[in-house]
Every structure is written in structure tokens, then in C-alpha cells.
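B., you asked whether I could sanity-check this one before it goes into the benchmark set. Here's the sequence:
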Amino acid sequence: MREPTAITIGELSRRTGCKVETVRYYERVGLMPPAPRTAGRYRLYHDGDVRRLAFVRRARELGFTLDDVRTLLTLAREQADGPCAEARALAAAHLAAVRSKIADLRAMERVLDDAVDRCAAGAAPNCPVIDALAGGAKALRSRRAGAARRRRG
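And here's what the prediction gave me:
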């Protein structure tokens, strides 16, 4: 039987694309188990650590919180017990949050697009961009409504 090959934190970082400081942070917060150390105090990692860190990194890239990642790691360990329903519920809740953020971003895009369009290359006496930032989206909507009333009336 082949003995597992140990790698350093730098090699773990290279294999996973996760920065060394982030690996240390994940150890501190419990997402990665404490690595055994050499006599010279170097951390040593194995294939399971590479897989775990890749899992954590991907979950974080998808926007899962540290607590969500902890839960997903626990569910992954218990995979034989059928945790799919729990993982699905967690992912569904996260998806709902992502969709809400996308809706907020689209609303922000509309407000900024309108402010930039109304700016007319900076020729307006009052800057619509500054007005939008000072008064928020509500001010923009009321200004737009007032302009529409003036056009009709």
C-alpha cells in the first residue's frame, strides 16, 4: 500500500487556487481541520484536504456563507444518510437570496441608467447623478413623475 503524499500549504494553495492566508483563515474558523505540523512547524496536507478546500472554495464562490459551508460540509460527510433534502433546502434559500440581489441590482441599473441619460452630457443646471445619489431612487421617481405631468399639462 502506498503511503499518502503530504504537501505544503503553498502546494495546497497552488492546487486549489486558494490563497495561503485564506487557508490559514479557514483553519482558524473550522472549515479546514488543523493540519499536522513537521518538526519545523510547516503544515502538511493530504488529498482529502485538497478535496475539502476545493469544496469550500467553490461553495464560497457561489456565495454561501461560512455557516452554510459548515452545514454543507457536514452534509457531505453524512452523504450515506441521504442529506440531499437538507442540501437542497439550503441551496434553494440561497438561490432565493441571489435572485433578490439580482432584482436589486437591476433596479439600481435602471436608476443609474436614467440618471446618466438625464445628465445630457453635463449640460443640465442640476446634476441628475448627484440628485439621484442625494435623494435616492424615490427622488428620481418623483422627479420623473413631475416631468411627465409638466409634459401633459
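One thing to flag: Residues 100-153 form one domain. Otherwise nothing jumped out at me.
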